[in-house]
Amino acid sequence: MDESLRSLTAAFQGTKKKRQLSTSGIVFLVIAAAAPLTAMVGNLPIAIMRGNGPGLPGAFLLATLTLVCFSYGYAEIAKRVVNTGAFYTYVVLGLGKTIGVAAAFVAALAYTVLTIALAAAFGFFGHLVAAALGADVPWTVCALVGIAITAFMGYRSIDLSSRLLAVLLVLEMAVIVWFDASVILARGTLALPLAAFAPQTVFGPGFAIGLMFSYTCFIGFEAAALFGEESRDPERSIPRATLFSVFLIGAFYLLTTWITIGAVGAAEVRGVAEERGGEFLLSLITQYAGPIAGQLAGLLLCTSILASFLALHNAATRYLFALGREKLLPRRLGEFNARRYAPSNASLVVSAITLASIGLFFVSQRDPYLAILPSLIGLATLGV
Cα separation of 26 and 231, whole Å? Predict the structure, then answer.
């Protein structure tokens, strides 16, 4: 066990003084990966349409409770093992190399697939926002812009990414809070319908799909451990960031989903979501908080997707880096760029895979929102 641990924590020797991330910086990275605005605007309509509809807040409550339980154990492990490999490292030390390697490849696949999904999401919603401003920009062009920005940022120090993500995260959470407050002021107690937590509603048709999308919205909460070797005080900051992120994300999602159901009405919400599709929540923000808030939400949605795209790109990069460092993938992936203070080779590979995938989607002419996103998100969620 000691030999394995020494092997898995051998990298970054002599670089402790260069560690840059604080607890707050890691929290921003983790919550940005979950992308509150993207989760609500992008995932919520699909979850309502194909999931348990008005019972979705109950699914979010169950997801939050189970992940809080998981996070306590995960945080205790993070105190004892500081390594970029995260899940891979933990499984190796607990269950052995064979199972650990399998877990690492599943995690690398899941995060890479989700990175591709977010590139498609950025393209789709970028196209919608451009259309609202009077410009006809193909979704693939918007996706390419997102890939270029993420590739540029991901190639460099994670500290640069965390500062950008902090600003974007504060803005996107502010617009959702604005919407929540507006609905409560307009609807009063009707904004929080108790029917959303009735057992027959929560566990009704589509519960499993609703629960899957609830977990999807949390993806990225466990990513704090990936940045242990780049943080200032990993034994304290990683556990704190993980637990705080789960509580904050869970409360935020639960309340916003509940209020969204209340804004439309439990009986009508599924039909309205099917009618409006990807514009469901944006239209509600415009209706309750005003056109300025709706336009701001549209613009921030693109930055929210970009923030999540960047955060999950960083997560996928660090899994490839860990696998390369362990010689389970080409060694070049495990090389650390001392000048950029980042696993730059792995980042370039993730960017190349994302770019090639978007090219294939363009050739296939599939609908990015209704065909591409549900499939990729489902696969990534199952993997995590």
Answer: 8
pLDDT tens digits, 25-83: 677 667 766 778 888 888 889 899 989 999 999 999 999 999 989 888 887 887 777 66
Q: Record the pTM.
A: 0.74
- DSSP summary character for residue 230: G
Sign of the dihedral defined by the CA atoms of residues 43, 256, 240, 310, in that order? positive
62, exposed or middle or buried, with CB in 10 Å at 0-12, 13-18, 19+? middle
Q: Hey, what amino acid is at 206?
A: G
Angle at the Cα of 27 from the Cα atoms of 26 and 28, rounded to 5 degrees: 90
Q: Whose CA is closest to 321, among 303, 335, 338?
A: 335
Reading the block at residue 73, the tokens are 């154990």
Are 284 and 77 in contact by the 8 Å Cβ rule? The answer is no
Angle at 49 between CA 177 and CA 248, to 5 degrees: 30
Which three-class secondary structure state does DSSP give residue 260?
A: helix
Structure tokens at 313: 């790109």
Would you give the DSSP letter of residue 198?
-
Bridge partner list, 21: 231
Residues 6+ apart with CB under 8 A from 305: 35, 38, 42, 118, 121, 122, 125, 146
* Burial class of residue 199 in the structure, from the number of CB atoms within 10 Å of its CB (0-12 exposed, 13-18 middle, 19+ buried): exposed
Answer yes or no: are the C-beta atoms of 278 and 42 closer than 8 Å. Answer: yes
pLDDT tens track for 92-115? 888 888 888 888 889 889 989 989
Which position has the token pair 């190796």?
A: 92
Grouping H, G, I as helix, E, B as strand and the rest as coil, residue 222 is: helix
Q: What is the distance between the alpha carbons of residues 335 and 92, in angstroms, rounded to a whole number? A: 21
